[in-house]
Amino acid sequence: SKNKHSATYTIYDDNMHRKELYEAMLLDSINDALNENQFKLVFQPKYDIQCDKPTMSSAEVLIRWDHPEFGEVKPDFFIPLFEQNGLIRQLDRYVWRETAKQMHKWRQTYGVNIPFSVNVSRIDIFDNDLIDYLKRTLSEYHIDPKDLHLEITETAYTENVEQIVKVVKELQDAGFKVEMDDFGKGYSSFNMLTTLPLNALKLDIGFIKGIAENNKEMNLLECILEIAKLLNLTVIAEGVENSKQYLLLKNAGCDAIQGYYFSKPLSTKDFESLLKYSC
Ligand code: C2E
Ligand code: MG
Ligand code: MG
Ligand code: MG
């Protein structure tokens, strides 16, 4: 495949911008990447903060691409690329299957029964086989749907209202838990909060950044926590990076947090050490 890449390079070098060239090369290497296991899962714990001491209650599964030529490629860069090129379904299915496999293994080895969450692209919402695929895959590994939480990004809810309402209801009926990811990042639709049967809200990192510096942002956070409580939604804050933010969130009644302050996303091996330690 080295030759294939250098061929692409010679043809496009003069006409394409660096970014476009890089994108083309990445797209070109996806099949190899899937076949050669270049994609890895990492696990970022979510901590319950309304108990005596913070307790790991779940973990989010995030994908990493360790490219043989480019090194680590960021999901923020390649996920949109996969979405635009009809490849995200294959990638997300890979992540979900590997997650189920890993959960099964950890249950057998360490007896841990915490739920895990995976990301669902807004494109996956249009996959007619989405729910059956998830159910089939989980049942292969004897995982109950209630133990797989699905994080669907906020933008999905504003773009295709009818479709998302239908799919989220079907997911709930099938027993999955649904979390609205990146809440507060774009045009948060409060209407969606009452229209959809959601289980949790994940507050976007951009929303958490200012709470320790700015009264207005802290007031807004308190209002959102209030609304969430009325709607019976669990609130998870993402991107918590310091003790100040953590304490503000805890005192304001936020249910759970995720962020570098408690843990970065961990490799399979490092997450295993954490499981061993906490059992
Ligand atoms: P997300 O689902 O909102 O995930 C949170 C992102 O914030 C992750 O970036 C995580 O590593 C990062 N993060 C966690 N704690 C902190 C913190 O304290 N500070 C800062 N600055 N960042 C923190 P990551 O892993 O690079 O993923 C970026 C996005 O790519 C994800 O955002 C998600 O939208 C998407 N993504 C990742 N894996 C998958 C996947 O398997 N499928 C799909 N469809 N999308 C994925
Ligand atoms: Mg997420
Ligand atoms: Mg998120
Ligand atoms: Mg986010």
UniProtKB/TrEMBL annotation:
EAL domain residues: 23-279
One example GO MF annotation: cyclic-guanylate-specific phosphodiesterase activity
Domain of life, source organism: Bacteria
Name of the protein in its database record: GGDEF/EAL domain-containing protein
Organism of origin: Butyrivibrio hungatei
Lineage: Bacteria, Bacillati, Bacillota, Clostridia, Lachnospirales
